[in-house]
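User: Second chain of the day. Same drill as before.
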Amino acid sequence: MMSERIERYLLGIEAVREAVRGFTSHELRIQPVVDEPASPDVGAWSPLEVICHLADSEALFAERMKRVLAEDRPPLAFADPAAYMAALACHDRDVEEELACIAATRRQMVRILAAQSADAWQRVGIHSRQGEQTLEQLLQKAVDHLEHHVRFLWKKRDRR
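Assistant: Same format as last time:
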């Protein structure tokens, strides 16, 4: 079961690359597709902003998983996506660099996760808003998060 989840996590790299393949530089920066059902900001984000959000989130998920493995019940702080979007110069970032960050982070984490014992998957961190979260839950959230945003990218791609 866990190896399947790790495999799905790894497959996310190609899923996000495929979702943005063929976008022009201009198309990557187009905002918004207004009628998308979304969380407050995601529907209004350009494809590049979605990719930047994914790259930033991958770093956060990886950091959380590493802390859960290395520390005893570490605190896991909430990160506000809107604040990150406003402060981190998404329109000046390069889509290929962002995709490379996602890929490098996931590949590194796959090696770390694959080496864990069965007991490690139940190690816990304490999220500031969601309470206790196991390593297993954090991995599932990372998988689900990327897949959720890849669906938005495909909608944006279909409507360009």
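The beta strands are 75-76, 124-127, 131-134.

User: Great, on to the next one.
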